[in-house]
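Dig into what follows:
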Amino acid sequence: MSRHPFRVSSSFVCRNLYHNNNKRWKTTATRRNTLGVLLFFVLVLVSVAFFSSSLSSVFSSFERMTTTTNNNNEEEEAQQKCAKILDHLRSMNESEAERQTRLDLSECGLRTVPKEVLRLRNLEFLNLGKNKLNALPDSFAKDLPNLKILFCLANEFRKVPEVLGEMEHLFMLSFKANKVREIPEQSLPIASLGWLILSDNEIEVLPKSLGKCRKMRKLMLAGNKIKELPTFMSELVNLELLRASDNRIEVFPEFLYRLPKLAWLAFAANPCTEKAAANAMERGTRAVKRVVNFEDLGVDEGKKLGSGASGTVYRGEMDGFNVAIKVYNNMGKTSDGRPEDEMAAASLATSTTSDIVEGEQDEQEETVGSGGVIETLAKFTTKDGKRGLVMEYLDPADWKNLGGPPSFETVTRDVFDEREGKFTAREILAVAVNVAKGINQLHKNGVCHGDIYAHNILIDRDEDYPSAKLGDFGAAMFFDDDENPQFSQMVRENEARAFGCLLDDMLVNYDGTRGGSNTVMIRENIEAGQTQYAGNKIFMEPKSYRPSTHLDNDEGKPEGELTPAQSREERERRRDEHLQKRTHERREADKGLVSINLPEDGHEKTIASLRQLADDLMHPTRSVRPKNFEAVVKRVQESEKLFFGDYYAKKTRKPPDSPAEKVRRRSSQR
């Protein structure tokens, strides 16, 4: 029987229904699986986020707990320290209390001045630093009538207490790093105040009573919001040191040009000095030609040579020689300026290559370093973006600080060790020669050191060949003769007086002897006054090393810039080559050395000559002082000739003109 064309069997229908249903079921299952997978991932992400948040909260809570615990421990220690001191004060009888002249209550967690302190009527020194004080008792001046020195560092004062104006003997007052905004007119003891520290506050306006503090010798105003120094400050005729960096001063005050005793001035990071600073930073970047990898310097960051607000110094190695590595705090803040100012000054201090004169590309000036400042050899940038400098390493076994920072008694003058702080004529002369040339080099590059002190000078007290180097550019600022010649001249006059004070300090500590032997080796072809008369020592010491930049390595970098692939053996090889070269130079130099006998009274004449120079440099009338440091260097060289005698002056001669001098002479002839 034939099928009907439109008849469909039941089995066919069932089969199609099954396939269609199965297809729909598979599609639905696929969708369900996809949704399930997506839902699973969403749940995983939510869980991870919740877990991370919880973990972060746990860590934050743990950190807060740790901080709280540490703070609690510090508070407990402060309370225990305070309780111990106060118990001791309570146990004193009247006689013992009268003999108490010094008291240190720093970091005791104080919110008020304890009444036990106010019974010490003969107290002269009181340190209340790093507490939580915001006021002083009304009876403070009456109860402590003999107080001379008061430290209120890092408290919570918003204004200087007016009761301090009643104190008749208060000479030194510090409110550094508080929240001071107001200085009432009656708050300054105008009859006695000679040293005022108001750094790192929020001060905008200075009181008129400040101009009446005629005994003021040292004034610290850095790190405030001061827009101008008022003209009444011109009455501060005894002011010797002024720190006004990091303020908002737009116009440099003209009265500072006339202050007779001003010698140490820091004015960086103000709008009125920013143009010269920007120019100096750009020149400083070009001054140090050599760039090295920080990782190749062998720095152990766990071993520091020193650290401060501007950065950290480590010991490292470059080309087989020990070097000092300073890593600067990019956005740091110091008591006298900014780390970037210090870095620019250090870069310019021993710059050996000046800008190429336009049109004379083959006449690049190579100047001889003064030797009077710590030498900068290279620069680098760390992986985290911090910049730094490689400087010569001065072995602490040989190089010592010339003096110590000023005391409360000396105020602006350095202090010297009773045994080690006596100097021979030879040592005084070496410091005078080296430091004068160093300052002259700075001034030629538009750098004002700002802090010419014995405690910023290192001395190698070799018996026959002493040497000295000026360092620490933390108070440096910059000047430009073209932009402001009056400001530039003031800087030179100030630094001349500071150098005179340095000479005066050393001459006061002259031990009356010449020092060393009565003969000396000199080189006949050096400039009169050069300190390189030391013969063998000059050529063998690594500290006079300057790497060559002529031989290239595999990547075309100058010699000395080792690639990471180069081994320590390569460093040693280069070091050996350098020492061999230096030995050859020493032998060649020996051919020009002669031995001379020093005149018997030469050292006494030298001391007398330097004494006269110091007096001229410290003269209160600015016009009497030498106009620039080239004149100072010449005066020092005259003293040096007296020490070494006529034969020394006769046999030394002026070196040939530098390439830059040839360029200038050729330009003048055109």
Notes: Residues 1-10, 352-369, 525-560, 651-670 have pLDDT under 50 and may be disordered.
